[in-house]
Request: fold
Amino acid sequence: KAGVTQTPRYLIKTRGQQVTLSCSPISGHRSVSWYQQTPGQGLQFLFEYFSETQRNKGNFPGRFSGRQFSNSRSEMNVSTLELGDSALYLCASSLAAGRSGYTFGSGTRLTVV
Amino acid sequence: AQRVTQPEKLLSVFKGAPVELKCNYSYSGSPELFWYVQYSRQRLQLLLRHISRESIKGFTADLNKGETSFHLKKPFAQEEDSAMYYCALSDGEYGNKLVFGAGTILRVKS
Reply:
């Protein structure tokens, strides 16, 4: 059974640009959530989607957005990139909700220069 | 606010010694707690959930509501246990938001 797949693995962008990251959950998993991991702030929740609906959102500015498609695949978008957005972005999926535990992808390493 | 505290950044023990990774939480309702582990160059993975009361790779964790703790224990450390360990609680209406602690690096020396 394939795990959670995130693409691309690495990205380098310039300040002011926008970026889209992709996540394919485990087959059958309908809940997809995103996390930002940095050395200073650790792991922080961005948002969660279930059946194409955003159910929960973390404390990030509106530049961070996401969506989920009917096949449960998800994308997150960051507009007007700032240097501080450099981080590892992790996607996680679960059957229904987080109480059963989430399965994480390997992440996308975003570097903003 | 919901919070998870892991007071130790680094815990270094000898092989065969007992291990206890500390985790304290602040939560207004009935918490659901997890331990996640990240081995070198691998993805973050679920180690155990308090609701399962399971033992994985010799690790156990007991929820102590009185002390608001969920410490991870193993009686005899092995070198392959060296990794970063994160304690997390499940928040949000659907339990769909994980609040993570800062993590503890466990280093098992031979």
